[in-house]
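pasting Perosamine synthetase for the record, 374 residues
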Amino acid sequence: MLPYGRQSIEPSDVAAVVAALDSDWLTTGPRVTEFEADLERVAGAPCVTVTNGTTALHAAYAAAGIGAGDEVVTTPMTFVATASAAAMLGATVVFADVEEDTANLDPAAAEAAVTGRTRAVAAVDYAGVPADYERLRKISDSAGAVLVADAAHAIGSVYRGRPVGSIADLTTFSFFPTKNLTTAEGGAVASIRPDLLERARTFRTVGMVKKPELLRRRDEGRWFYEVHEFGLNYRLPDVLCALGSAQLRRLAAFKARRQQLAARYDELLADVPGLRLPVTPDGVDPMRHLYPVRVLDGRRREVYDRMQAAGIGVQVNYIPVYWHPVFADLGYRRGMCPVAEAFYAEELSLPLFVDLSDTDQDRVIDTLRGILGS
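structre below
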């Protein structure tokens, strides 16, 4: 079965992990600091590593002080964690519809969803294409809310000349194997605001405070620490950070190959009837995590099943978040975001990963052509 996404591991990655295993540090050690510095050079802002993309969102919302009585405006066209991480802190999630062409959060819909209780506006860089942060920034600032970027798909992407990670108040990354780079499991929070970054760092370390100037009791020994707010153990271990730093050294090559594969899809699928291809808005330079096509005329289920039967792993990204029973049980109803629901009804992600060969991509294209032409 040809997968729709997979990691790219080379001997240099293996050597980095082995060296970490041979060291005195397996959990939090020098490679965590090194990886965070490496990430900062790519993201354009200081970073705190965490155990995965979901915990990155949880830590980011916690750093922003999201809690009971607050509202978080976000998109339904995402993995559930973008919303559930806020809900678990007691916030009310307010879903706003998406743009027709990108499936990113629609700024006009987000603005209409803002109320006096809005504490955060959380966008998702769907498929690696950055959201419209210029307009979203104006909306969040006007509401006195933090701007959060769920960039699980988008490390390496650029928006109007700025790297994703340097635009929103808080940006979250995922390093799951199918993402643009991997640490097996892992994630990070980037922030352009030192106060929010420090809060995220403290939260991911069980809330432990060790800096002498922050302690309420300063007359104890060097072993002493305090917990001022509850946190969780979301620390990414040294051995996985070693893999992350090794992967980052190949990020430019990863991006070039993903862009090359996307361009081949654009060219070779352009004339296929019943198929709508993804677009890239002006002013963005995406590192595509997904290649999401839209299968028209109600044939998405058929195409999905026949591609799978042909040994080609395709995927649907994503089920509208408020369709999940956990949100339905809270009173959310279908029909809230019609553009997102129409997108879901047609979306199909074709295989896209660094080690996908031209030959295998041609097989995907030929199979898809054959199905839609029959």
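The longest strand covers residues 118-124.
The chain is about 35% helix and 15% strand.
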